C-alpha cells in the first residue's frame, strides 16, 4: 500500500480535530503548492508521540488514525484553497468560460476520495464540473498515459500516424508562467463551510 493510500485508509477511523495542522501557505495569496511545512509539523507530532509512548520501531502509535486524519484534512484543505483561487482567477481574467467549465483532476491525488469531496465542494461553489478518472486509472503512470491515448484515439484528437519530423523535448513547457500575476491580484478565497461526512467538517 502506498503512503497516500495508507493515510486515507487510516484516516477513515481517525478524528482530525485531535490535531491542528492547518493548511500551509495561508499568507501567500497565490496558487503555489508546498507541503514542506505540513510535513515538518506532522513529523514533529509523530516524534513527540513516539517519545511519550516509548514506541519501538515497527509499532504503530495509538493515535495514528487521528494523525492520518489531520494530515489528510490539511492536504485536502491546501489543495482545495489553491485550486479555488486558480478557478476564481481564471474566471475574473476571462481565461475560462463560466459555462461548461471543467476541472480535471488525475493522478494519485484524484484517487483520494476525501480530496475529491473537497474539490467537489469548490467546483459546486464556482459552477464548474469536476472530472476524476476511476481510481484504478489514477495510480500508475503507464496506465494513465495509455488510457489518455485510448480516449484520444476514440475521439480522433491529436493522434499521430507518423513520428517523422517530430522533435522530442525532455522537459516540455506547460504554457506561460503567470504565477507572479496571480500573486499580484491576491484573490481572497471565500470561506465555504461544508460537511464532508457525519463526523468531519472542512473549512474552505
UniProtKB/TrEMBL annotation:
A Gene Ontology term for the protein's cellular component:
mitochondrion
Q: Which Pfam families match?
A: TsaD
Residues covered by the Gcp-like domain: 2-147
Q: Name the chain's protein.
A: Gcp-like domain-containing protein
